[in-house]
Design goal:
It is found in: Cell membrane. The chain has 297 residues and is mostly helical. It is built from 16 helices and no strands. The longest helix is centred in the middle third of the chain and has 31 residues, at 169-199. It is globular and about 55 Å long.
Length: 297
């Protein structure tokens, strides 16, 4: 049990549930799935609701499983010591039960309301995150590179739930952009919280390379994220000029905002600012894909 569990009063059950399932983060992945769904249909219908519900339930279940898996390590880091299990609001068994119910419910919603392909892709995302990426973080500072498949899967789930084929070049291009985006997103988080990760026994690129080299590497991957967006018009994910301009301006803004990573003396406020930038860029990217069919009418 962490220090937080000894000092903090118990939270309201609803608050505990939302913390355990990381609703904000789970909702973000659900939003990217909407991009895949709308990109395939070139519009939206009532099936979008069940798609988003299924993915949200799976994402929340996966997040809860992650907190069960890492609760002992979470208790050692200031950033995570006040999560529900270290705080003592839930036992690992209780949290695992909630996670299982959420994950199974999400799988069934996708399967019964849509198709087996989208449900299996959702299950793959959960297995990859909890069965592969989570334990790999304890072993390698580069775990996020293969682990970024998790960020690529929600758009593909949305695409297939709408009736598309998982191997369609258009959805592969969209998924690839989110795959690349995930890497600098996580490395900026490492730059912010490296000491806490290392105290809990996680290898980090700060410990391996030092902060200046991590910053340069993160900048390079950020530029790669911006460049990868050029695949979306090429593979007809975006076909309207307003959406292309919106995404292009967002990509330029992202690179310009990341340039301070190349200067000496990086500090926490810089990492936090660039981290917010790359999250906002993901929002711009997703919005451009969602709005494109409406711009092109």
């Amino acid at each position: 049990m962490s220090v937080a569990a000894l000092s903090a009063p118990k939270s309201h059950p609803v608050s505990t549930f939302l913390e355990l399932t990381k609703l904000r983060i789970s909702g973000a992945s659900t939003f990217t799935a909407a991009a895949g769904y709308i990109a395939y249909l070139r519009g939206a219908n009532a099936g979008l609701i069940t798609t988003l519900l299924g993915i949200l339930l799976l994402a929340m279940g996966s997040s809860a499983f992650n907190e069960v898996q890492e609760h002992k390590f979470d208790a050692q880091m200031p950033r995570t010591a006040n999560r529900p299990i270290p705080r003592g609001d839930l036992s690992p068994a209780q949290a695992a039960l909630i996670a299982g119910v959420m994950a199974v419910s999400g799988f069934l919603v996708l399967w019964l309301a849509h198709n087996l392909t989208s449900a299996l892709l959702g299950a793959l995302a959960l297995v990859w995150y909890n069965g592969f990426y989570t334990p790999l973080k304890r072993v390698s500072a580069f775990a996020v590179v293969p682990g970024s498949l998790i960020g690529a899967l929600p758009p593909a789930i949305g695409w297939t739930a709408a009736g598309g084929h998982a191997a369609d070049p258009s959805v592969l291009a969209l998924a690839f952009v989110f795959f690349i985006w995930q890497v600098p997103h996580f490395w900026l988080l490492v730059g912010l919280h490296a000491e806490g990760y290392e105290e809990a026994g996680y290898p980090t690129l700060v410990g391996l390379f030092g902060r200046p080299r991590l910053s340069r590497l993160t900048f390079t991957w950020t530029c790669g994220t911006a460049a990868a967006c050029g695949l979306l018009p090429l593979f007809h994910v975006l076909v309207s000029k307003p959406a292309e301009i919106m995404l292009g301006l967002g990509a330029v803004w992202l690179i310009l905002g990341s340039l301070p990573l190349l200067k000496p003396g990086q500090d926490a406020p810089l990492y936090r600012r660039v981290f917010m930038n790359i999250n906002l860029f993901a929002l711009v990217l997703t919005a451009a894909v969602i709005l494109d069919p409406f711009f092109s009418r």
